[in-house]
Design goal:
alpha+beta; 7-stranded antiparallel beta sheet; two-stranded antiparallel ribbon
Length: 587
């Protein structure tokens, strides 16, 4: 068949209830009809496709890091303001991170190719499953509608402009049936309408049965949770609130009752049975750990060993995200996912001071820094320090929006509009004195949100949908409708679960003292903390027609990106353009 994404179905047979798959042959729709169990096998095979590293573009075998779910998280998160990347890399994530992507890199190629492979498989199953046979068949049909809607949604959010820029912009190619005779890009609005229809069908059919296993299988709850996200993107706030109300009212007691920090027990090491998870891509050990360097977690974390290190550890926390958390040191989330390179928060009373500094050449900023033995605490609360480069500065405390910040009264970034020409200084307490700094330019703040499953440093079963997002979807929708009380109630629910309460609660009375004039900004900051590194942040910013401020340390241009910037839509792989002739995204 002419189109590169019109491909056969990968059949995988389910071996055990913990989603352990092995590959088999491809099947046509006719073959599925002739085999009563075939639709079960091919549906189970779709679950495997999210994590498979299959050969493509003439390869004889797959590459360890070439997985749909890995590329999904990388292409989403690296384009936000949460992640700072520490210099040049041969991995193709660097182009999208710098908003300088090209049209022939393997991450986008594989993601596009595998996305339509999953859609084709779902279409084949939808074409033949009879939901009237029994409740199991109905649920199975719903699962396939969910997969088709999900992948279309993930692809349109990456390869098209945000819905907030207009319904008439070019979207992606819609495949909602077995007719592959023509190829054209639907509009963004048409794509979203089709996604909503598919998720509504998924809800209808899965409501007639029950989930087939643990949280590595989709359920009616997963379809509703995803639909709440879609509605939020579309600006359908009341619809989002209604479906979130329905979800939360029927949630497990650990969520709808006392939504406490215990819901995150063993998270992220046991996401498939966590009270927090709605749906995750289950990875089993050792089958799905092809390489400890080829996982989502490998870029965020490096375990330092005596004989060898595990993981690359090239992506770090943005300092401003750390500052957001450090307003409330008791926040469980920060303690759970943050670590320094050298094992860290050692409680030795030492300090590190770092700050953004623009080198003489380059469009990016590096970290200037000083270790504890070069820092002097002054009587007025300031710190005088000498950097590793020999410069001496003083970091002076100021109250900014009710929180203490430190600034060097000198423009070290080259941007006079950034903090009024001053340079923020970041005071980090209780650090190991032998703190590692990559290439002498980047302080290595590691993220362990994708670590620890089965005792493996860079291994987890990544979560696609969870309860924290549902509460915050509803909070954002309330904020759009100017229902401040209801929005803050959901924000406080999340904060209580994170171990914050009392003075840490938000109210209409204390918002202004904390620097907020709009409840939407309270919600967006809470979303940033709760969902950091899970691929939401960039879409949250552009959905709300805000600017993405990327003026922070990292190997990327020092810039502010508007929600209408055409670079937001990733370039479609050139193989697709060359074969089908659909128009490319502009640059």
């Amino acid at each position: 068949m002419k189109k590169i994404f019109a491909i056969g179905i990968a059949l995988a047979t389910l071996v055990s209830c913990n989603m352990d798959f092995y590959s088999s042959d491809s099947m046509t729709s006719a073959q599925i009809k002739d085999n009563p169990l075939a639709a079960v096998y091919t549906t189970d095979g779709i679950y495997a496709l999210f994590k498979d590293n299959l050969p493509y573009k003439g390869q004889t075998s797959g590459e360890g890091g070439n997985m749909y779910v890995r590329h999904l998280f990388q292409l989403s998160e690296t384009r936000s303001d949460n992640v700072t990347i520490s210099g040049h890399s041969t991995d193709p994530f660097l182009g999208p991170y710098r908003y300088e992507d090209v049209d022939n890199t393997k991450n986008k190629y594989y993601f596009w190719w595998m996305g339509y492979k999953i859609i084709y498989a779902a279409n084949s199953n939808i074409d033949v499953i009879n939901p009237d046979e029994n409740s199991e068949s109905a649920h199975l049909l719903g699962e396939n509608y969910f997969f088709r809607g999900l992948v279309h949604f993930q692809m349109v959010t990456l390869f098209a402009m945000p819905y907030s820029c207009g319904r008439d912009n070019p979207g992606i190619v819609l495949r909602r049936g077995m007719d592959y005779s023509t190829t054209s890009r639907a509009t963004v609005g048409e794509c979203y309408d089709a996604i909503v229809e598919d998720l509504q069908e998924a809800i209808k059919y899965m409501s007639k049965g029950k989930a087939r296993g643990d949280k590595s299988y989709v359920s009616v709850t997963a379809a509703k949770a995803l639909l709440s996200r879609v509605y939020l993107n579309m600006g359908l706030d009341q619809e989002c609130i209604d479906i979130c109300n329905d979800l939360i009212s029927s949630a497990p007691g650990a969520v709808s009752g006392v939504y406490s920090v215990e819901t995150l027990a063993d998270y992220p090491t046991h996401t498939w049975d966590s009270a927090e998870t709605i749906w995750c891509i289950r990875h089993t050990y050792p089958t799905d750990l092809i390489s400890a360097e080829a996982t989502i977690g490998a870029m965020y974390y490096q375990k330092i060993g005596e004989s060898e290190n595990v993981g690359w550890g090239e992506w770090y926390w943005n300092d401003e995200l750390i500052e957001l958390f450090q307003r409330y040191p008791e926040d469980h989330r920060f303690a759970a996912y943050f670590t320094y390179e050298k094992a860290a928060l050692v409680g030795n009373g030492k300090k590190l001071i770092s700050f953004p500094e623009k080198p003489e050449d380059g469009d990016f900023c590096i970290s200037g820094y000083a270790h504890s033995d070069k820092i002097t605490a002054n009587a007025d609360g300031s710190y005088t320090f000498t950097t590793t480069g020999g410069a001496t500065y003083t970091a002076v405390p100021e109250m900014v929006n009710g929180y203490k910040r430190y600034f060097i009264n000198k423009n070290l970034t080259g941007d006079a509009s950034f903090w009024g020409g001053k340079t923020p200084a970041y005071i980090r307490e209780d650090v190991d004195d032998d703190l590692g700094v990559r290439s002498g330019m980047y302080v290595r703040y590691f993220n362990t949100k994708f670590s620890g499953q089965d005792g493996q440093a860079t291994f987890t079963s990544p979560v696609i949908l969870r309860w924290g997002e549902v509460f915050l979807n509803r909070a954002e929708a309330y904020a759009h409708l100017h229902n401040t009380t209801a929005a803050l109630a959901d924000v406080n629910t999340i904060r209580h679960r994170a171990g914050l309460s009392g003075d840490a609660d938000f109210s209409e009375a204390n918002m202004a003292a904390r620097g907020y004039t709009d409840v939407l900004d309270v919600v967006l900051d809470e979303r940033r903390m709760e969902l950091c590194f899970e691929g939401h942040r960039v879409f949250d910013i552009y959905r709300n027609k805000k600017k993405l401020d990327r003026r922070f340390v990292g190997y990327h241009p020092w810039e502010v990106i508007d929600y209408t910037d055409p670079r937001i839509a990733l370039l479609i792989p050139d193989g697709e353009i060359n074969v089908s002739g659909i128009p490319q995204n502009p640059r």
